[in-house]
Amino acid sequence: MSTQIIELTRRTCQLFTYFLIFFSTVNIIVYMIFYIPGLFYPLSLTLEEGELFYATINAFSNKVYGDINKTFLPLTFPPFFLITTHVIFKVTQPSIIIGRVVTVTSLFIVALMMMLIVKEGISKNKLYYLLGFSLPFLPLFTKAYSLPFKSEMFGIAIGLVGLFMFLKRRYATSGIILAISILTKQILVTIPLALLLHLTIVERSKRGTLHFTLSLLVSLALILYAYSIYIRGNVLLHILVYYFACTLDFSRYSLYFPTYLALLIIYILCLMVVRKKEGITWLEIYGILTLLVTLYTIIRVDETINCFTQPYLATSLLLIKTLNQLSSIPNSIEGYRNAHINIQTTIVITLILLVIFSSFVAIQNLRPTVCPVFTEAMKEDLRALISLIRGCRGIVLSEDNMLSVLAGKEIIVNYFRLIQLYKLKLWDYKTLIEAMKEGKVSTVILTFNVKEGSYAPYLPPEVIETIREYYTLKDRILGYYVYYHI
Q1: Is 321 within 8 Å of 271 (Cβ atoms)?
Q2: Which of 13, 372, 391, 448 has its CA 20 to 30 A from that of 281?
């Protein structure tokens, strides 16, 4: 009877693997049909697209990482994504479509690297190679947030390349690549930190630790120093001080708690199945670190559900490891004992694990985000709005920075970041108010009417009052209220 139960458990895991691969294939098709057309949407799909596009165009000038009292642009993105996309723009033409193509391509690179990491460090079964490629396409937050002009998916792709090189034991090369990933997104420091802990605690390799650490730190220092000198800016101030100067909203825990809890339970259940005598490896360490870091990122007011991408990928790798172990153990009680797994416990855990992961995937796909489409009339209005902004003198304060960038304005205002600095007393909003009163900010474009008493949550009341007193409503186009300085 026990042998039959063991066989049933193995069969269940295999069927579940086939189901995940099939469902992922469907998701890839859905992604291509409903998400890819959003590449051609002419406005921002997320709040950061405008400033990232502007920073990419000006990546090698002193308009980025400069004095925020002059540029009004706290730039919290590390520079490597800007540099890479800027080089691509030199070959093509500056376009938000190109930036979005880079991000979409990064998702497919992530899937490819997941497959190679499974092959190198988890399983030799080709079925699990395919599962590794498939899993990144399952949740909503990897599909929806891989489309806009964003740096995170690009950074994760680089980080996984560095992880793969680490598994090939090319520690110096891995350190250099992972330094680049950190210079794309700050929270990707979890990957090299997990690998460093693996080298020092698990492998206890002094030579490997030295090579890895030196290549990582030297690469970080050289790239940052050379770039800062070239643009004559203070990169560290922006990507460290301004990045961490962000308001924390603990009520967001309730918003993201179901997603976090699901990943945490899946992770713990997988750990209970894959217990080994030799202890934890880089994978378990990486999963723990990403889950801990996510506790911080989800309460940042500038983060969205895409902050779950890293813990999801770590949990996916651990799930593959679990399924591989369960399906490869000999069909006997002795085989389970040799693998240090209790039969009854394994059956219960496996069933719970499959139910929770299936529920997680189902919930993530019940609410697909279909990118908006512009009609010809809307495109005509957009051209009129951009033409209007292009003709404005001075600075344009716009809720959607993409409008200012498309109009070719020299300065764009990231008021969301500025207000974060203001709340933490790192910037005085009076600088912006003085510029508005003096007419240096000639035009303000909002998604609401200041005369009706409503206001944006990221603008302080003093700024709203300044708009009411010194600006008059000129036009309304595409739902935007255009105010001119009196």
Answers
A1: no
A2: 13
Report pTM: 0.89
Cβ 308 vs Cβ 263: under 8 Å: yes
Stronger pLDDT, 115 or 420, i.e. the higher one: 115
Q: Residue 251: helix, strand or coil by DSSP?
A: coil
Q: How far apart are CA 146 and CA 258, in angstroms?
A: 22
Backbone torsions φ then ψ of 363, nearest 5 degrees: -65, -40
DSSP string, 163-218: HHHHHTT-HHHHHHHHHHHHTT-GGGGHHHHHHHHIIIIII--HHHHHHHHHHHHH
Using H for helix, E for strand and C for coil, what is the string for 267-290? HHHHHHHCCCCCCCCHHHHHHHHH
Helix (H, G, I), strand (E, B) or coil at 118: helix
Residue 110 lies in a domain: yes
84 with 227, same domain: the answer is yes
What is the structure's pLDDT at 12? 77
Residue 276 reports pLDDT greater than 70: no
Q: Write out 67-108 in H/E/C secondary structure.
A: CHHHHCCCCCCCCHHHHHHHHHHHHCCCCHHHHHHHHHHHHH
Cα separation, 382 vs 116, in Å, equals 44
Task: Name the residue range of residue 438's domain.
Answer: 376-485
Does residue 34 contact residue 370 with C-beta atoms inside 8 Å?
yes
Q: Choose the final residue of a domain: 334, 364, 394.
A: 364
Q: Would 369 be classed as within a structural domain?
A: no
Domain count, the chain: 2
**Burial of residue 69, with CB atoms counted within 10 A of its CB: 0-12 exposed, 13-18 middle, 19 or more buried:** exposed
Q: What pLDDT is attached to residue 455?
A: 57
Structure token pair of residue 425? 């007393």
155 part of a folded domain: yes
Domain boundary among 337, 364, 391: 364
Amino acid residing at 264: L
CA distance 356 to 364: 12
Which residues have a Cβ under 8 Å from the Cβ of 1 and sit 6 or more positions away?
A: none
Is 148 a member of any domain? yes
